[in-house]
Amino acid sequence: MSDVTNVLKEYSKIVVKAIEENLGTIEPQELQDASMYLTKAGGKMLRPALTLIVADAVGGNKEDAINTAAAFELVHTFSLIHDDIMDDDDMRRGKPSVHKVWDEPTAILAGDTLFSKAFQMIILSKNNGANPANVADALATLADACVKICEGQASDMGFEGNFDVKEEEYSNMIFKKTGALIAAATKAGAIMGGANQEVVDAMYDYGRLIGQAFQIQDDYLDVVSDEESLGKPIGSDIAKGKMTLMVVKALAEAEGSDKERLVEILKDSNSTQDDVDEAIDLFNKYGSIEYAHNLALANVAEAKEVLEILDDSESKQVLVELADFVLERKS
Questions:
Q1: What CA–CA distance (Å, rounded) separates 50 from 179?
Q2: pTM exceeds cut of 0.90
């Protein structure tokens, strides 16, 4: 997967340049610094890379899609800043969160600035020769994803303390919170690449499927990875009482004292590492870790089938490899 990592690095250079050019005019300097802070913190930039790769894979001009690609990274970063404030998370990408470096009001403004700049950047694509109809469709696609992100975050918050969440409800939540923006990024790449509606719809499905797998893999890594790779303690989601696919599945399968104990651990805001390890043992007992991993594998396999609609090309092969990368990453 080193080739995929190198591809992402090459695309990230293009995206970072576009972002720096568009955010470099923000005043005052403190707001500019806060707005650009996370984009310089070494994220994978998966979403903008997908937009550019899809634009190329459908036979379009990648240049037309650069601003749109950057817009998806800005919205993603906006969501991270606001998530960290809501969750009171101290760290992001191995560095102090924006609201910890500055303060919450400045972080909120930085997020809002990125959100606004994202739409502005897509609109500016018209000045670079992009088809105005495609620009309008890309704007609508991003706007729809932004609404879904908010719905997903609200659902996630509503799940706190609710231990009767059904798998379908959880799947809908993670699609909106994580998958929707990835699906919109791949769809927008097809739009800006001038693809027909059938291909545009297929690329949305591809993004949706790898987005689902991406979030499930995040949950999975939280219990099977190591602290050094993750950049946070193993089982931190359990310690926070978060609903993940593994929690939902284990609660659905467990009965009696096992179910009571798992709920007790999830409810305890002062749970120890021993408690977390006990919860992971219960996940294993009821097969929820294996279940989550298998579901992620199935999503990736389906995503690769969707790509058969595209003509063979180097970019199509990268999309195939990116689908695998979603599951092979360690953080």
A1: 13
A2: yes
